């Protein structure tokens, strides 16, 4: 039996206006660096964290969204986005930035990290986790 625990980071907040989104991303990177099995879920306003074309100049804050594209390098390859949260905000999967990883078990083929799932599918994924941290 493996000692590696499954961690799911649940992102509920918009990317800017609070520290939650950036703090979550930093904690994910730290956890992944320590060989934890890490995945992320985006629900509610958290779906905006993965939106294409984020421009933060008028907010006077740094746009950290490109960092999501580096997650695959840390072994973080499962990003779940709740379909209902997208729909409730007038978004579709096409509105999300492309985030991929190289699958070393498949000749380093580039594969998508984002999985759009229903609310009930996400509930099942959550039941499989050892630890869930909500941001």
Task: Briefly note the structural class of the backbone.
Answer: alpha/beta
Could you give the order of strands across the largest sheet? 6-3-2-1-7
The second-level CATH architecture is 3-Layer(aba) Sandwich
Rg of Cα set: 15 Å
| Poorly predicted runs | none
Quickly count the helices: 3
Largest sheet: 5 strands, parallel
What is the terminal separation in angstroms? 30 Å
- What is the helix fraction of residues, given as a range? 10-25%
- Which H/E pattern describes the elements? EHEEHEEEHE
Shape: globular
CATH topological fold name? Hypothetical Protein Ychn, Chain: A
Classified in CATH, the superfamily is DsrEFH-like
Indicate the proportion of strand residues.
15-25%
Number of strands: 7
Overall pLDDT metric: 94
CATH class: Alpha Beta
Number of domains: 1
What does it look like?
With 135 residues, the protein is of the alpha/beta class. The chain has one domain: Hypothetical Protein Ychn, Chain: A. Helices cover 21% and strands 24% of the residues. The protein is built from 3 helices and 7 strands; from the N terminus they run βαββαβββαβ. The strands form 2 sheets. A 5-stranded parallel beta sheet has the order 6-3-2-1-7. Strands 4-5 form a two-stranded antiparallel ribbon. Strand 1 (6-11), helix 1 and strand 2 (37-42) form a beta-alpha-beta unit. The radius of gyration is 15 Å and the shape is globular. The model has no long low-confidence stretch (mean pLDDT 94).
Features:
24% strand, two-stranded antiparallel sheet, 7 strands, 135 residues, Hypothetical Protein Ychn, Chain: A, globular, alpha/beta
